[in-house]
Design goal:
160 residues; alpha+beta
Length: 160
């Protein structure tokens, strides 16, 4: 995996003055609890272009449940990819845990997953519980570097 490119502070114009106060509050709290946390994606692009971002998304080493423990105003969403939404009035900050690229599923893995899903559905029908809706394979957590390199578009891989 190639090394990420880091732009020195002297070569960009991003300042905390231009970052939403609630986003900074979330970043600071996560970092105080020793979680690596960055602004990611289009908000970083907009700051570099001296535009006002319409929203701020965050990437962190904290897992969704760890984020939820730190913020009462947090909801975990998503079946395929678990995300934390932290609400501040009408504003929602999306916080994603760093993930790594997952290799394609083999036939054996697919068959085992399908058998487990059938078993859970059958058990749910018998005991009245609901089948698990979370897809663990797609939620393989990683580092900030792994997350940046698995992103689908260069702008989405901008971290600040």
């Amino acid at each position: 995996m190639p090394a990420p490119t880091t732009i020195p502070r002297s070569e960009h114009n991003i300042s905390n003055r231009h970052i939403d106060e609630d986003a900074l509050r979330v970043i600071r709290r996560l970092q105080q609890h020793e979680f690596e946390t960055y602004l990611v994606g289009g908000g970083v692009r907009d700051l570099l272009l001296e535009r006002r971002p319409k929203d701020f998304d965050l990437g962190t080493s904290a897992h969704p449940q760890q984020i939820k423990k730190l913020f009462r105003n947090c909801w975990i969403i998503g079946r395929r990819f678990r995300l934390a939404h932290i609400k501040f009035g009408d504003k929602t900050l999306e916080v994603a845990t760093f993930r790594k690229q997952v290799p394609p599923e083999t036939d054996t893995e697919r068959q085992a997953r399908e058998a487990a899903q059938r078993s859970r559905r059958e058990a749910a029908g018998r005991d009245g519980s609901r089948p698990r809706r979370f897809i663990p394979r797609d939620n393989t957590f990683g580092t900030a570097v792994e997350d940046a390199f698995r992103r689908d578009f260069t702008i989405n891989a901008l971290f600040y």
